[in-house]
């Protein structure tokens, strides 16, 4: 099977171009690099317009500019869930209101991720990257993953933690599955098993904090470390700041909610930048790497010849490229992300390829796509 590296690079926007466009928009608004935009305080989010964020309707297709110069994302009421497929075609992400979720368990995320190091180290799973505690000190973040297929690897003697975690996860997965069902209202796009099983879905508690950063990471050589400091991941004093590189999520859909400060930005297929601050009463819905396979042109594959460009149409939902950069002066940021993923062995793509003189149908399973993504150099972006 051909390598994905060159195909991915041609299918997706160049990462440097994205940085330039993001920085250009920030400079237009008088900012120096990226800064967090605070959410409307005290806002009672309902079906009316919130601040300058557009409340999307079936016929609305306009966005407004935020204080930072970035475009803002639409808000969709959960009772209008049938509008979400068309909205995710037009926008890289949406806010969802009246979703019925329990309060986001930020207190549990904070409790767990500020435990003493010796306790957090006992919550690691050396055999899994999506279970238990991990950190990336070079970028000032640490996280804990809940994988429902395994026993919860959480803080000891805390029954409320497990109860609230699993409740928020289960209800969030239900919402994402409901959204998936809407894509099949006109033609079968997403496999039925996605609606019926939690598959390989997980949930993440994530903390960004300057307290986490190692100013001299042990696993990076000096040249690599200097590159980090000279990028937008360093503040005016040349110090590393909490961040995550621009990336897309390896899933079908992501549900995310966060505390202030924001620092979250997303891109659409034209390279336009959207601000995505936390707004009371909402959760953010983003598309993952599998959506292009489910919504590409009928009979076309994103993996086929000519880099699959012809498979991507106006009705194709592209993965949401996003990044987080938190100014050091803003303190720490917590977020909770729920990832809707299929079973590892689910077939996500079929295409006809030549094998010698014969044409054969080749199938791609989710696990293979995940393996290929690990080998992509630079940013972990698929279709962005």
TrEMBL record:
GO molecular function, one term: oxidoreductase activity
InterPro entries found in the cross-reference section: IPNS-like_FE2OG_OXY, IPNS-like_sf, Iron_ascorbate_oxido_reductase, Oxoglu/Fe-dep_dioxygenase_dom
SUPFAM superfamilies attached to this UniProt entry: Clavaminate synthase-like
UniProt record similarity statement: Belongs to the iron/ascorbate-dependent oxidoreductase family.
Gene3D superfamilies named in the record: B-lactam Antibiotic, Isopenicillin N Synthase, Chain
The protein's name in its UniProt record: Fe2OG dioxygenase domain-containing protein
Domain Fe2OG dioxygenase: residue ranges: 224-342
Mitochondrion recorded as keyword: no
Source taxon at top rank: Eukaryota
Keywords: Iron, Metal-binding, Oxidoreductase
Oxidoreductase recorded as keyword: yes
Lineage: Eukaryota, Fungi, Dikarya, Ascomycota, Pezizomycotina
């Amino acid at each position: 099977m051909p390598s994905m590296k060159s195909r991915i690079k041609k299918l997706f926007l160049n990462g440097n171009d994205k940085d330039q466009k993001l920085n250009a928009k920030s400079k237009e608004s008088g900012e120096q690099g990226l800064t967090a935009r605070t959410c409307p305080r005290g806002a009672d989010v309902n079906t009316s317009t919130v601040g300058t964020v557009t409340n999307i309707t079936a016929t609305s297709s306009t966005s407004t500019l935020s204080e930072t110069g970035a475009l803002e994302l639409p808000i969709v009421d959960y009772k209008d869930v049938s509008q979400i497929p068309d909205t995710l075609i037009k926008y890289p992400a949406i806010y969802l209101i009246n979703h019925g979720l329990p309060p986001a368990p930020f207190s549990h995320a904070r409790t767990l991720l500020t435990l003493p190091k010796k306790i957090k180290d006992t919550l690691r799973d050396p055999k899994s990257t999506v279970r238990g505690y991990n950190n990336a000190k070079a970028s000032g973040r640490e996280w804990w993953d809940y994988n429902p297929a395994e026993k919860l690897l959480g803080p000891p003697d805390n029954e409320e933690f497990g109860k609230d975690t699993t409740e928020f996860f289960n209800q969030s997965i239900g919402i994402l599955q409901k959204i998936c069902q809407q894509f099949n209202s006109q033609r079968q796009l997403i496999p039925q098993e996605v609606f019926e099983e939690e598959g390989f879905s997980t949930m993440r508690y994530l903390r960004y904090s300057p307290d986490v950063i190692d100013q001299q990471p042990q696993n990076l050589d000096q040249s690599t470390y200097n590159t980090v400091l000279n990028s937008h991941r360093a503040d005016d004093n040349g110090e590393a700041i909490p961040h995550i590189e621009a990336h897309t999520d390896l899933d079908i859909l992501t549900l995310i909610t966060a505390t202030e400060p924001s620092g979250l930005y997303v891109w659409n297929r034209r390279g336009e930048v959207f601000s995505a601050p936390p707004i009371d009463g909402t959760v953010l819905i983003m598309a993952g790497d599998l959506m292009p396979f489910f919504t590409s042109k009928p009979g076309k594959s994103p993996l086929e010849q000519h880099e699959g460009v012809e498979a991507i149409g106006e009705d194709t939902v592209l993965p949401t490229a996003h990044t987080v950069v938190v100014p050091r002066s803003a303190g720490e940021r917590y977020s909770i992300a729920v990832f809707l993923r299929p079973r590892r062995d689910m077939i996500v793509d079929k295409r006809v390829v030549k094998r010698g003189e014969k044409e054969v149908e080749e199938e791609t399973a989710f696990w293979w796509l995940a393996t290929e993504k690990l080998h992509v150099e630079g940013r972990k972006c698929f279709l962005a």
